């Protein structure tokens, strides 16, 4: 049987720009393809012919590798990016959980970072998460507000996903903008606190120029409301956009 392969957009070293591990140095493995189509998505939708690989960590000099790649090929490229200098390896996308067979083969080959494997996910594929859960250390999970993302509701999937993820270092990310519906934010808060007292990051939609689409008063109002139900609630925009990083 031929080994599982996956299409990747890029493999590079940079600084985590979102969530409660913001500022940590990570190796990013960006998978192509997603099961959702959020209106604010900044990831190209197509499957690229080549994966960009940053041959020297942080150099922004990329070589092109033909897609799809095997787990052994990806592990070799990651080893050359000096895992020991990094907090963790971020599996991101797109949606990395579309590639679980590949991840089952890849993750055991990824050694040497300080904190292990960091999964960034839209939180809608609980069956896939269950398959790789023992191999993951940190989970950054979205709860999608249907009105803000302009997609169908995923409440049931999110609930099942968060129940599985709560055994790990997990936090939830809620992307909001000026027009986010208060009733959807309330529903997300109820969903989270019914599963557990899980850290929440309210993430204002951030433009490529580094401007947020949420006025500070509203951010503070929603944070206060969330703090009535949860202990750890932070407002953090996508900082890599104004740092000028990838
Ligand atoms: S889940 Fe993420 S990658 Fe997928 S469409 Fe939404 S923002 Fe883009």
Q: Secondary-structure element sequence? A: EEEEEEHEHEHEHHEHEHEH
Q: Percent of residues in beta strands?
A: 15-25%
Secondary structural class: alpha/beta
Q: Main sheet: which strands, in order across?
A: 5-4-2-3-7-8-9-10-11-12
CATH fold name:
TIM Barrel
Number of domains: 1
CATH architecture: Alpha-Beta Barrel
Instruction: Name the shape in a single word.
Output: globular
CATH class: Alpha Beta
Question: What ranges have pLDDT less than 50 throughout 5 or more consecutive residues?
Answer: none
Distance between the termini: 36 Å
Give every kind of bound small molecule, once each.
iron/sulfur cluster
Q: Approximately how much helix is present in the residues?
A: 25-40%
Number of E strands: 12
Instruction: Quote the average pLDDT.
Output: 94
**How big is the Rg?**
17 Å
* Major sheet attributes: 10 strands, mixed
Number of helices: 8
Annotated CATH homologous superfamily: Aldolase class I
Q: How would you summarize this macromolecular structure in one to three sentences?
A:
This protein has 246 residues and is an alpha/beta fold. Helix content is 28%, strand content 24%.
Please characterize this protein's 3D structure.
This protein is an alpha/beta fold. It has one domain (5-243): Aldolase class I (TIM Barrel), CATH 3.20.20.70. The protein has eight helices and twelve strands. The strands form two sheets. It has a ten-stranded mixed sheet with strand order 5-4-2-3-7-8-9-10-11-12, with helices on one face. A two-stranded antiparallel ribbon has the order 1-6. Helix 3 (126-132) packs parallel to helix 5 and helix 5 (155-165) runs parallel beside helix 6 (182-195). The longest helix is centred in the last third of the chain and has 14 residues, at 182-195. It is globular, with a radius of gyration of 17 Å. The structure holds iron/sulfur cluster. Iron/sulfur cluster is lined by residues 34, 36-38, 41, 43, 93-95, 122.
């Amino acid at each position: 049987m031929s080994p599982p392969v996956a299409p990747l957009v890029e493999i590079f070293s940079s600084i985590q720009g979102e969530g409660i591990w913001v500022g940590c140095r990570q190796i990013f493995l960006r998978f192509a393809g997603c099961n959702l189509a959020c209106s604010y998505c900044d990831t190209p939708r197509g499957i690229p012919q080549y994966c960009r690989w940053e041959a020297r960590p942080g150099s922004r000099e990329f070589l092109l590798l033909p897609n799809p790649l095997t787990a052994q090929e990806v592990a070799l490229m990651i080893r050359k990016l000096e895992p020991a200098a990094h907090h963790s390896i971020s599996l991101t996308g797109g949606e990395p959980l579309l590639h679980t067979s590949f991840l089952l083969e890849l993750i055991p080959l990824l050694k040497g970072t300080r904190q292990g494997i960091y999964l960034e996910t839209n939180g809608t594929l609980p069956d896939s998460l269950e398959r790789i859960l023992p191999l993951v250390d940190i989970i950054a999970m979205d709860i999608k507000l249907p009105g803000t993302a302009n997609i169908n509701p995923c409440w049931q999937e999110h609930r099942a996903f968060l129940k599985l993820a709560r055994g790990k270092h997990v936090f939830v990310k809620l992307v909001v903008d000026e027009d986010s519906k208060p009733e959807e934010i309330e529903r997300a808060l109820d969903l989270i606190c019914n599963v557990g007292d899980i850290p929440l990051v309210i993430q204002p939609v951030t433009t490529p120029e580094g401007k947020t689409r949420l006025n500070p008063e509203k951010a503070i109002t929603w944070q206060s409301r969330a703090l009535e139900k949860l202990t750890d609630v932070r407002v953090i925009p996508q900082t890599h956009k104004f740092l000028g990083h990838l």
